[in-house]
Design a protein that fits this description.
The chain is α+β, with helices and mostly antiparallel strands. It has two domains: about 210 residues, 3-hydroxy-3-methylglutaryl-coenzyme A Reductase, Chain A, domain 2 (Alpha-Beta Complex), CATH 3.90.770.10; about 90 residues, 2-Layer Sandwich (Alpha-Beta Plaits), CATH 3.30.70. It contains twelve helices and nine strands. A hairpin with a 5-residue loop joins β1 and β2. α7 packs across α11.
Length: about 350
């Protein structure tokens, strides 16, 4: 008998979205124990509804990765083997594609350390997040290379150069998951009405807190207020592998004043999610995806990308609201006390 952990969930929104990736007005589910998260994200959503264009979400890239690790006799032999691999990428892609209808090898990167050879394989995985799909394809490629190059020895199906569920630089540089940018422009009037602050104050705090503060803390390709909060809520509500918020929260919040208005954006290079696969068979997940209109599409890969757009919009709403609260002394603590305590 399976047991389930019960986590409170609410839909927030509607959020207005525009752009080619996804457009319209959507309510999104967030599962969390942190009750103030729902009204906070709702405040950002309410602002989006008062703008003409809403939140513009742009897909920059889409890939999933797995790294394989070999032992070689020497660094010179590793270089020799890499040269052969680079000359036969189409053949290796054919080997990977033989493992499933929706997996497609699109890139190979390598690193050599001593006599160790790391290969980072990047794949398209349709509407699935692609963890198992990539591992299966990577294993086929690994076996193919072991047969072809007798000098290679198996070390591991995963060499941490992927990098799965870890805060690393490589994911932001080479990509892992859906790379989405969410943008919103808010007039000064809307800033003062809903956020109780000014565009200038928002920009100043973003620089001093999110950029400089994270720099001093030694953050890795990350500069945001609390992106992980929205990511975890969204991941749990839509059947995703929640541990992927580790790399997913390597987000950058950026703000500037444009003609008196606030330009506000969140860049999320590592959103790992899908609309099919593990976790999506649960009844509540199916219902949530159906409510967002993300079940039954015919264009392969499109619905998972749109899901990532909705996730990015949710992160933007939460980032906007929290940063605004922190420009005003006492507002953040007062809201938590009011919502989370009985008195």
């Amino acid at each position: 008998m399976s047991e389930f952990a019960s986590i409170p969930m609410q839909f927030v929104g509607p959020i207005r979205l525009g752009g080619h990736l996804i457009s319209g007005e959507y309510e999104v589910p967030l599962a969390t124990y942190e009750k103030p998260l729902w009204p906070s994200v709702n405040r950002g959503a309410r602002i989006s509804m008062h703008t003409d264009e809403g939140i513009q979400c742009t897909l920059v890239d889409d890939r999933m990765t797995r790294s394989i690790l070999f032992e070689t006799p020497s660094a010179a032999e590793a270089v020799h083997i890499i040269q052969h691999i680079e000359n036969d990428e189409p053949g290796i892609a054919t080997v990977a594609a033989s493992t499933g209808r929706f997996v497609k090898l699109i890139d190979i990167h390598s690193q050599i350390t001593g006599n160790l050879l790391f290969l980072r394989l990047a794949f398209k995985t349709g509407d699935a997040a692609g963890h198992n799909m990539c591992t299966q394809a990577a294993e086929a490629v690994m076996n193919h290379l072991l047969d072809r190059f007798p000098a290679l020895k198996y070390e591991s199906i995963s060499g941490n150069y992927c990098s799965d569920k870890k805060a690393t630089a490589v994911n932001g540089i080479l990509g892992r998951g859906k790379y989405v940018v969410a943008e919103l422009t808010i007039s000064e009037k809307l800033c003062r009405r809903f956020l109780k602050t000014s565009p200038e104050r928002m920009v100043q705090l973003n620089v001093r807190k999110n950029l400089i503060g994270t720099l001093l803390a030694g953050g890795i390709r990350s500069a945001n207020a609390h992106a992980a909060n929205m990511l975890l809520g969204f991941y749990l509500a839509t059947g995703q592998d929640a541990a992927n918020i580790v790399e997913g929260s390597q987000a950058i919040t950026f703000a500037e004043v444009r003609d008196g208005a606030l330009y506000f954006s969140v860049t999320l290079p590592n959103l790992i999610m899908g609309t099919v696969g593990n976790g999506k068979e649960l009844v509540f997940v199916k219902e949530n995806l159906k409510k967002m209109g993300l079940i039954g599409g015919k264009e392969i890969g499109k619905q998972a990308q749109q899901l990532a757009g909705l996730c990015a919009a949710s992160v933007l709403c939460g980032e906007l609201s929290l940063l605004a609260a922190q420009t005003n002394p006492g507002e953040l603590m007062a809201s938590h006390l009011k919502i989370e305590r009985d008195h």
